[in-house]
Amino acid sequence: MRIARRLQDLAQSDIRRMTRECERVSGINLGQGICDLPTPPLVRDGAIAAIRENRSTYSFAEGARELRDAIAKKLARDNGLRADPASEICVTVGASGAYASAISALLDPGDGILLFEPYYGYHLNAALVAGLTPEFATLTPPDFTVREETLEAAITARTRAMVVCTPSNPSGKMFSREELSIVSRVAQKRDLLLITDEIYEYIRYDGRPHVSPASIPGLRERTVSIMGLSKTFSITGWRLGYAVAPAEMTQAITLVNDLYFVCAPTPLQLGAAKGFDAPRNYFDELQSGYQRKRDLICAALQRGGLPPVVPEGAYYVLADCARLGFPTSRAAAMHLLETTGVASVPGSAFYRGAEGERLLRFCFAKDDGVLEEACRRLAALR
Hints:
With about 375 residues, the protein is an alpha/beta fold.
């Protein structure tokens, strides 16, 4: 059988592969961002109520109105963004569904799409499947600072869009207002579309504010803001995300969303809508709880000789595995799994070249008892 040429160099990500390897040895999975923490009762019970009320038919392709209204209020309250729930918001099957719909709706095959490196592998591979040409601007640890000259040098004549993931997977980097102003200047100068991934917006540390790129002057009219509910409410398996953009772009995204997915699961949308009614202390406790987990794993990695790049947000940490002495990060990850029973993700999943071969990514969105055992094993690494 003939396989499409655009798929011939693609394979399932090392994130998924390491989950399978972890299951093989009955290990502790700090690789995939599964987030197995409890779902808030408000969200859980809202979905159950919707199912009991028989609200299980299709929603509109753009999503249930209850959820879009809740999202619009949240955007005004937390992101400094005004969005019309009737025409500027589209609910999708996960943030990944929003991304796939956006790039298919707004870009043509062959168009260049600029990713900041280290990148999230799904951003790259979904772009390849869509026939786009990936381009890269490499950011240097530990600060991953965005500089205007670096960004300008990465743009080519075919570049049509940039992707900004903040807080970032895998690095935990949060783009500052000053860095986003650089992005805005370059985007306006080069007439570029900006696509964001802000799914970790509520998971941030040390009092840092989340700055939505679309709130920066000059970006709102050229930005597709992609956000999600999976991480905020610990419902990764519910597959709920959304895109926010000017009406004309949202209309195109909704058309593709309808063709690819029809709609997101209706009762789960209605349950998630209830989550936006959570009191402020829910989001405060979310941050403080994850900061405690971050500090725990960073200390364990340091003791185990895997110096961490301490993240500013999200629930991942990159760690330097060079001292293990392996030529590739995949070999280092397998050694770590076989010797400690703790799964990580090779840094090569987030880089094109050699920079990723000295890094491993760990996810710390785990129950306290599970994380503490993983940290005990990592700290004892020799």
